[in-house]
Design a protein that fits this description.
CATH architecture of chain A: Orthogonal Bundle
Order of helices and strands of chain A: HHHHEEHHHHHHHH
Number of helices of chain A: 12
Strand order of the largest sheet of chain A: 1-2
Strand content of chain B: under 5%
Largest sheet of chain A: 2 strands, antiparallel
Oligomer: heterodimer
Number of strands of chain B: 0
Shape of chain B: globular
Structural class of chain A: mainly alpha
CATH class of chain A: Mainly Alpha
Order of helices and strands of chain B: HHHHHHHHHHHHHHHH
Radius of gyration of chain A: 19 Å
Structural class of chain B: mainly alpha
Distance between the termini of chain A: 46 Å
Radius of gyration of chain B: 21 Å
Helix content of chain B: over 70%
Largest sheet of chain B: none
Number of helices of chain B: 16
Shape of chain A: globular
Number of strands of chain A: 2
Amino acid sequence: MDVDIYKYILLFSIFHSSTYLMFSIGFSMLFGVAKIPNLAYGSLYIFSSYIMYTLIRYLALEPVVAALIAVLAAGSMGLLIGETVVKPALKMPVTIFITTLAVAYIFEEFFRIEMGLRPITLPLYPGVTYVLGVPVSNHWFLVLTASLLMFSLLTVFLKYTVIGRSIRAVAESWDESRRLGINPLKVLRVTFFMSGIYAGATGVLLTPLKALTPTAGWGPLFTAFAIVALGGVGSVSGTLIASFIYGFLEQTMTYVLGSGIASISPLILIILVLVFRPQGIMGRAE
Amino acid sequence: MVFVKRSARDLIISKTPFLAVLAALALLPLLGVGGYWLDVLTRVNLFLLVTLAIDLYSGTTYYLNLGISFTFGFAGYALALLNVYYSIPTEYSLLLAIPISVFFSLVILLPSLKIRGVYFAILSLLVPIVYIGIVTAQPFSLYLGGEGGLRFKQLFLDFARSLPSDVRLVFLQYSYYYISLAAAVIGYLVAYKIGFSEFGFMLRAIGQDEELAEGTGINTLKVKIIGYLISSSYVSIAGALYASMRPPVTVDLVVPANTLIPPLTSAIVGGLGTVVGPTIANYLLLLTYELMWGFIGRWRVIVYMLLLITIIVIRPQGLIFKIYLDLKKRLRGVLRE
């Protein structure tokens, strides 16, 4: 392999890792607090993309305006899902798997019936920049910037704001936080909204790079799930590390082994890691 | 649970619903139910084993095993591989596939069984996803059949070929149905025994408070592993039988939406840990889903899911078991008068 290939692998590993980071931070935050994965997370991703598509196509809105509306819609939908489907099931946490999964199927079927199976795309951010002599679409830079920004914002939010600290307190112990005067249900509500915003933002930013179909939500959901498991449940820095491990491994393997086995090589690694360290890289065993 | 000695009449009354349903199911083919609906019932019978597996393990310990679909599909693949690459007749590879699949399921999930918390659920959901990836990825797909699946000889095909052509299909269909029914009945009776045995109560103790259970002298790891083995055996038997009746084996067997969600739903709506509730829910829900196809066509997924959410949100601890108890009480009252 010549030097160009290495440059290419390095660059795209970084870009792909940033998309994985984007997938997983919103999911990780919610997983950390509720301790149960929201399996409708992928639905919010396709939901915001379809909203943005509809707004651009039928109302001829500017992409930026459409994207903002779509992200807010996803946040509200996240809140709605949390209120209607997750909160009543908190007494029996196992049932959250079923209810959120049922929501995911409802979204999938709805878009299958209303929008059809034909893949849809959203507009890319225009322009191309040369990095180390490799042409890269400006949209990748938008994604990279946005994902790092989203990550930093979340870190600052969780560390330095009252609500953020409350989220961490609730994640640590539901009962203890109540004794400190925190209302866990209120915290859960905020978390659902924010998680929805993050899922929505991921949708409108990444759909231009991939095709949008009613089943497009499952890939991000499972990737996010795998990354959060690898990084450790409830650990934001673990999510960062795990995303980059995932991205670099996948991109490198694509060049070494070809695309078939490469896409699952990170998953195989994750299984191996979890077999020996079930709590993930940065997680703590109970 | 009532530990008072029951009168003979009470015993007969309490067993009546079970025997009535069993008789009805056994007579259905003779009453002219055949074709599509007999196939559906065969599938529902086998799914009962999976529902019971979830109920016995996850329903009592609250350790959610989402790797059920992996065990189910792995048993099918083991059967197909033995048949195709080692030319072992399907009837025997069916029997071999069951221990193989139980063994692999245990090896992969053993480390996460050792620690407490959500990690078991997480790892168990990833296993089927990775397995699907492996089956469809380039070098392995050549041996495992990829998307198209792996063809093998279905159960009893050699024998059926010796029969006249007009009864061949009917023979296969009826024999499959009765095998599935026998498996379901034995599975139910065994599950009932286990669920309300001393061992069953140990599993429940873990579900209530694992540390406390350990404090009372229960070896929780051992109980969890044995419970998991029983549960995996149920799933492996169901998976191997199911696959043997419908070649080829494809990744559809491993997709959680197909082989995990319907039984898990039945277990929850039926009432976790109650054995009877999930069994009734298994038949009710799966048959309702099939029936809905005729009424609302493509909207059935959405309507069914909304119905499911409503039931779970209103009664997260399960609905069917409570209804069953109420009905039984009423029946007993009527018979007493």
